[in-house]
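#structure-requests
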Amino acid sequence: MKILLSRTDRIGDLILSTPAIATVRASFPDAHITMVTSPYNRVVMERNSDVDEVVDLPREVKARPFGSAFRNYDIAIALAPRSIDQQIVGATGAAIRAGYTYQRRWIARLTSWLYLNRMTVSVADPDLCERNPSLIVPHEVDQLLQLVDLVGAHERRTELRLDVVDADRAAVAHLPDDPLVLHLGARWFTTGSTAESTLALAQELQERYGPLVISCPEESELYAQAFEARGFTVAHSLSFYTWAALFERARCIVTVDTGATHVASAMRRPTLVAFEHRYFRLNSQEWAPYRVPSVLVRKPEFADDASLAHFRARIVHGVERLTANTTNA
C-alpha cells in the first residue's frame, strides 16, 4: 500500500498533525508513506520516522501537476483545509482521497468534492464562536485524528512529535538551567500590546521567577536590542531543533499565539499563551497548548496603560500557577 499525506502550510499546524501521521503509520505499518510539505515547514518532518519520504512542493510548481506524479497511490489525505493540499490529493487519483473543510465556507465545501471522496467538516468558525460562547470547537489535533479515522486509521496516537537530539541540547547548554522562556513573537508588538509593555513584563517575570531567557525569532530581531540593553539573555534566531531544545529545558514558556505554542507542547512544557483579542473563543480552543499544563489569556482590545497593566498582571499570575504546578510535580 502507498499513502500520500499533504500539509504545505504552517510549521505549527504540521506539528499538530504529527499525532494523525503517527496514527496512519501505526494503522498501516507496512505501507509506504510519503509526506508532502512546503520548503518552509519541511523541517518538522525531517527527523520523523513515521513517514518514509518527505517531498517538497516547489514554490514554482502548481498543485495539480505536482500531485499527478503520485498516480499509483492507494490513499491520499489532505491534512490542511486548503485548496492547494486538496488539489494535490485529488490529482493522485487514489481510490481514497480524504480531507476536511469548514462548516461555513460554503464555496470551499462545494469545490472540495472535486478533489476528495471522503471529507469531514469542522465546526470551527470565528463568528459562530463569538455569537455562541457555549460552542465547543475540537482541538485541531482531534479534528485531524477524526479525519484519518475516515480512511481506516484506527490505531490512534495522541502525542505531538519533534525529535530533539543531544547535539541540539548541547547547542543551548550554555544558557541558564531551568529558565522561564519568553518567546518574542511579533504579536507582542501589535494590537493590544506594545514593546514597552513587553519589556516591563519581561522585567517582572525575571524578578519574580528568573532566570529568564528571551527566545527571539528573526521577525523580532529589531526589538531584541532593547531587551539586551536591559540585561536580558536573548537567544537569537536559533535553528528549529535547537529552539525546541531550549523549550525542552524550560520551566515554563510564555508566548503569543504562534507556532511556539505547539513546539512547547511537543516538548511537554507548561505554557502560557496570550491570544489575540479578536476571535479569542475560537483560537483558544482550536490552537490551545495540547496535553500540557497551560494558561490562556486574552490580549486587551486597546493598548492603554490600564489595559496593559491588567494584561501583564494576568500573565504574571498565570506563570505563578504554572511554575507552582511544575514545582509540585
